[in-house]
């Protein structure tokens, strides 16, 4: 299936695509997948200790909800999440479950919005894309995680889909929906600038390539004249779309005009300055190839489907097949023999440190741009767009100075669409329908590979999201709050109850040090729990402080209190000397082969 999107090609459409069209088994399969996605995202949602960041965002949303106000702070990203969480707390109350409802909701909404790609990829295509988005371990994990990334992924996806529909149909409602989605994307997190850059540069490249490289007939004539005609036809709709973008942005960043300075702070004064500085100092540093292991540990079926699909598409002749195979095999050989070697120091400006980084970058650029040009020539604009987004998004996030697992969600999003697109084309190959022995053999091989990939995806998804959600053995789990904290909070509640103390009115515990987060969330209703000063005069029945400080207070707590060592946060850094068998056991079962690390606190209970 080919589709083309140009500035002048307008497909008449008086009505928007309706969900309430004739129902067939593919439509039922799609909406059944959406329902299953909702179940997977909301099931057992509260059964994981809140991560440090989750507790931070949860507390500030709770403060906003209880009337303590909110002002935009770039350290906590954009304002939309804080405003939307007011509605969630109002409807469902404040708790460990409700604090994660919104990201799960937007994760479900993103999968449902795939329906609007039906005119581009067909019903089989939207079913396959929905399946990949539903069962992707990464997508599911961060749809169940109180951070901005689930919101940003949805608004990015929605703005792209409605933008594509507008260019194809010229229906103004699509333009307004795309503008609103873009504005909300910018009101959520600063990586929106990355996504906007990808969208704009793709559009420019598309127009340039199709006008000056492939010289399509509809591009003949003055390019400026074509844009002028487009502006004259659409200017009022574009102006209104600009107003929609502006007013959403203004209302949220100023917190409905209670913080007028928030507009410029969000536009550039604080947001870009703060995060550009974080990028320069590499506050959370990681290697350029930081995200590569995530493809193999969590998203191998999607990764192989995308890579295989691109290689099959561009290798349509013998010469092209030889070049594609040579580039792939030669890159692999270079990585094996030279990948671990250091690059010259002047490469530091690119954040690349070893030859592996450079080889991966060159391969992605070569194959990615080759595929994009091929899709442009074939008028398969959708495939070109998501190929460009996948390649450039991966390279930009690899270069960025902050490396954290949740950003991998944004690298993966366009690849899920590509995987569904290529798998749809795979099923449509005539060779699979032939009666010959070869065709039958290929069908059996494809079925076996498909079953193996499905089982691996399900195994990894279930393991990460329902068994190892807080297990530091998972690379997706980033310095996670230990399950011991949940047990400690239960003890705090039991002690308060047994002593007959109303913890909302009378201080029952003193907390200081690293444990303040996430305990701020769990003790949000406790009176005077935070105790930053000297603990020698403390008379409270329970105390929590950093493990390293217990020696300072040994004379205070040694006799009258029971001392319990509690793991606060845990992590695992793999030992590079692991054997092949150990790595295999880790790959399949997440069995670690060297000790995990932790940051601990001491929990004192008065005898």
Automatic annotation (TrEMBL):
Question: Which Pfam family name is an example for this entry?
Answer: PMT_2
Name the domain of life this protein comes from: Bacteria
The answer, when asked if Membrane is one of the entry's keywords, is yes
Q: Where are the transmembrane segments?
A: 75-94, 124-142, 151-169, 193-216, 236-256, 290-312, 321-339, 354-375, 382-400, 406-423, 444-467
Question: Where is the signal peptide, in residue numbers?
Answer: none
- Keywords recorded for this protein, A-Z: Membrane, Transmembrane, Transmembrane helix
- Cite the Glycosyltransferase RgtA/B/C/D-like domain residue spans from the record: 77-206
Spell out the NCBIfam families in the cross-references: flippase activity-associated protein Agl23 (TIGR03663)
Q: What is this protein called?
A: Glycosyltransferase RgtA/B/C/D-like domain-containing protein
Q: Which organism is it from?
A: Vecturithrix granuli
Q: What is the lineage of its organism?
A: Bacteria, Candidatus Moduliflexota, Candidatus Vecturitrichia, Candidatus Vecturitrichales, Candidatus Vecturitrichaceae
């Amino acid at each position: 299936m080919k589709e083309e999107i140009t500035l002048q090609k307008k497909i008449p459409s008086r009505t928007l695509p309706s969900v309430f069209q004739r129902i067939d088994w593919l439509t039922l399969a799609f909406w059944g997948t959406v329902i299953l996605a909702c179940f997977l995202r909301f099931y057992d949602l509260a059964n994981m200790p809140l991560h440090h960041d989750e507790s931070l965002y949860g507390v500030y949303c709770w403060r906003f909800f209880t009337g303590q106000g909110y002002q935009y702070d770039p350290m906590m990203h954009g304002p939309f999440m804080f405003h939307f969480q007011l509605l969630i707390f109002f409807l469902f109350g404040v708790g460990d479950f409700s604090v994660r409802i919104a990201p799960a909701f937007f994760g479900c909404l993103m999968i449902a919005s795939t329906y609007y790609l039906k005119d581009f990829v067909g019903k089989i295509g939207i079913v396959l894309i929905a399946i990949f988005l539903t069962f992707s371990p990464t997508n599911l994990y961060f749809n169940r995680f109180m951070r901005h990334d689930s919101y940003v992924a949805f608004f990015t996806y929605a703005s792209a889909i409605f933008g594509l529909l507008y260019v194809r149909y010229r229906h103004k409602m699509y333009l307004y929906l795309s503008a609103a989605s873009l504005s909300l994307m910018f009101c959520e997190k600063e990586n929106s600038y990355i996504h906007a850059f990808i969208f704009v540069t793709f559009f420019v490249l598309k127009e340039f390539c199709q006008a000056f490289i492939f010289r399509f007939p509809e591009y003949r004539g003055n390019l400026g004249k074509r844009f002028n005609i487009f502006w004259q036809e659409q200017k009022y709709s574009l102006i209104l779309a600009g107003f929609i973008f502006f007013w959403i942005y203004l209302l949220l960043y100023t917190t409905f005009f209670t913080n007028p300075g928030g507009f410029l702070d969000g536009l550039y004064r604080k947001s870009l300055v703060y995060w550009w500085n974080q990028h320069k100092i590499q506050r959370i540093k990681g290697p350029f190839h930081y995200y590569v292991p995530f493809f193999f540990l969590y998203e191998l079926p999607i990764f192989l489907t995308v890579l295989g699909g691109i290689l099959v598409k561009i290798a349509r002749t013998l010469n092209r097949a030889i070049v594609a195979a040579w580039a792939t095999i030669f890159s692999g050989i270079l990585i094996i023999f030279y990948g671990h070697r250091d690059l010259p120091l002047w490469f530091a400006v690119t954040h690349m440190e070893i030859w592996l980084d450079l080889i991966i970058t060159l391969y992605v650029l070569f194959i990615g741009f080759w595929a994009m040009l091929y899709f442009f020539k074939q008028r398969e604009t959708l495939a070109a767009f998501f190929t460009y987004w996948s390649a450039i998004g991966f390279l930009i996030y690899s270069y960025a100075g902050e490396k954290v697992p949740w950003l991998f969600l944004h690298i993966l999003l366009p690849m899920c669409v590509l995987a569904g697109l290529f798998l749809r084309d795979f099923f449509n190959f005539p060779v699979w329908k032939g009666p010959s022995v070869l065709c039958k053999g290929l069908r059996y091989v494809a079925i076996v590979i498909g079953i193996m990939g499905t089982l691996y995806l399900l195994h990894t998804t279930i393991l990460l999201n329902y068994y190892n959600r807080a297990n530091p053995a998972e690379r997706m789990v980033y310095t996670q709050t230990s399950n011991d904290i949940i047990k400690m909070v239960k003890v705090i509640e039991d002690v308060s109850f047994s002593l007959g103390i109303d913890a909302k009115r009378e201080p029952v515990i003193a907390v200081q040090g690293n444990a303040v987060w996430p305990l701020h969330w769990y003790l949000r209703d406790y009176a005077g729990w935070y105790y930053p000063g000297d603990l020698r005069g403390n008379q409270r029945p329970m105390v929590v402080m950093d493990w390293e400080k217990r020696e300072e207070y040994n004379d205070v707590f040694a006799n009258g209190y029971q001392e319990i060592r509690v793991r606060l946060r845990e992590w695992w850094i793999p030992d590079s000397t692991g054997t092949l068998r150990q790595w295999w056991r880790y790959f399949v079962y997440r069995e670690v082969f060297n000790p995990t690390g932790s940051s601990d606190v001491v929990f004192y209970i008065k005898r």
